[in-house]
Design brief:
There is one protein chain. The chain has 401 residues and is an alpha+beta fold. It contains seven helices and 28 strands. The strands form eight sheets. Strands 7-4-6-5-9-8 form a six-stranded mixed beta sheet, with no helix packed on it. A six-stranded mixed beta sheet has the order 16-13-17-21-20-18, sandwiched between helices. Helix 1 crosses helix 6 and helix 3 runs parallel beside helix 6.
């Protein structure tokens, strides 16, 4: 067994990870319905005006504004109705002095009209329309190109596509959009004791939790997980698996980064490429390894499920956000009193999962092998490396999942 000696700080580990993160340059076209939360890879330029023509912004009557200037509550202007238009109608008559056209919201404004009187300010008797309130030119009208003009950039390259931006692209008639490809992340699991869910388990075996939690994190942060399965604890198999995995943008594995006699990943990374660090001053998650093989980053997570998932959030997520060109998600943080005393280890940043109960932060951490430490938690608190104790009742900063 080889103990972890030179631990790097969490800040230094994150700095190395971010320095190695290369934003994806590949682009692809996707259907607009699949574009949400992707990153536009080129400008979307409108080929049309939006609205395409002047249109009614309210239900009512399209009029010449001067015909209504003397209209009042007790002495209405009386106009002759020429026709009725719906949102999809094309006007067949022009509005001349003393006439009007009944319109629905979104209707094309007929020639000659320059305003719309809302229906609530009118009464109709046959084709005679009584107008009780004046309007000024342009009132209740959406002019052609008011929203978007032909040649306008609707979405710029590098923008994160929100529902509103997807809607803007749809408004100019584009059914597809060019976006940056998702980072492809190869996921490996080491350990002869690990078996996939669905198989019958026997003593000495455990189900593969980490491949599924890591894949879920990758997908959550805009990546595409490529599950390559379990790798036997043999040097030749590990070499072959890492070589195969480096065809993708990033390699992440769990297990094999600790200090046991079967933990050979460090030797493999030193043999095949460059070892950046082995061991981070963080709890849980100390046995974490970073290397580069075939110009691809290889990040090794601890085998214990809580340690693995915790480090995915702390280290993998920031790196993937850079690779996927995503903006950093804002933290959701609340401050609460701690329900009981917590003792920490000086020299290592510690992350403790907590539940939020009755206005208190209740520690939920069990041990590194317990996935329910996170599955049944609402968030986590960070204990700095220079702190050894947090007393009951002390207010702590809870980062919510």
């Amino acid at each position: 067994m080889r103990p972890l000696k030179a631990l790097v700080s969490l800040d230094d580990a994150l700095r190395m990870l971010i320095d190695l993160a290369t934003p994806i340059s590949r682009a692809e076209g996707v259907a607009l319905l699949d574009a949400l939360h992707r990153i536009a890879s080129k400008d979307v330029v409108s080929k049309i005006d939006v609205p395409l023509v002047d249109r009614a912004a309210m239900d009512g009557y399209a009029v010449r504004a001067p015909d209504t200037f003397r209209a009042g509550k007790f002495k209405p202007a009386v106009l002759k109705r020429l026709e009725t238009l719906y949102a999809d109608s094309v006007p067949t008559k022009a509005v001349a002095k003393g006439t009007c056209v009944e319109v629905a919201t979104g209707s094309t404004l007929p020639k000659g009209a320059d305003a719309v009187v809302i229906v609530e300010d009118t009464e109709r008797e046959g084709d005679a329309v009584h107008v009780y309130s004046p309007v000024h030119p342009g009132e209740n009208v959406s002019p052609q190109g008011e929203d978007i003009r032909r040649g306008d950039i609707v979405v710029r390259a590098g923008e994160f596509l929100t529902p509103a931006k997807v809607g803007a692209i749809a408004a100019v008639g584009e059914k597809d959009v060019e976006v940056y490809a998702k980072p492809q992340v190869a996921i490996l699991t080491t350990g002869d004791e690990v078996i996939p869910p669905g198989r019958k388990i026997r003593p000495g075996q455990v189900y593969d939790i980490n491949a599924h939690t890591m894949a879920s994190v990758v997908r959550e942060v805009g990546g595409e997980p490529i599950l390559l399965g379990r790798v036997p604890d043999r040097l030749a198999d590990l070499r072959a698996a890492i070589t195969r995995a480096t065809r993708y943008d990033l390699v992440v594995f769990s297990g094999g980064s600790s200090v046991g006699e079967k933990d050979m990943i460090v030797d493999i990374l030193q043999e095949m490429g460059t070892l950046k660090f082995h061991g981070v001053a963080v709890k849980p998650g100390k046995p974490t390894v970073l290397g580069v093989v075939n110009a691809k980053v290889v990040l090794g997570m601890p085998g214990y499920p809580t340690s693995c998932l915790s480090n995915c959030y702390m280290m993998l997520v920031p790196m993937l956000q850079v690779m996927a060109r995503l903006p950093a998600a804002p933290e959701k943080v609340i401050e609460l009193p701690l329900s009981k005393r917590l003792v920490s280890t000086i020299g290592r940043v510690e992350f403790h999962t907590v539940r939020v109960e009755d206005g208190l932060a209740v520690p939920a951490y069990k041990e590194s092998g317990a996935i329910t430490s996170m599955a049944h938690a609402d968030g986590y608190i960070e204990i700095p490396a220079n702190t050894d104790l947090i007393e009951k009742g002390e207010r702590v900063r809870v980062v919510l999942f």
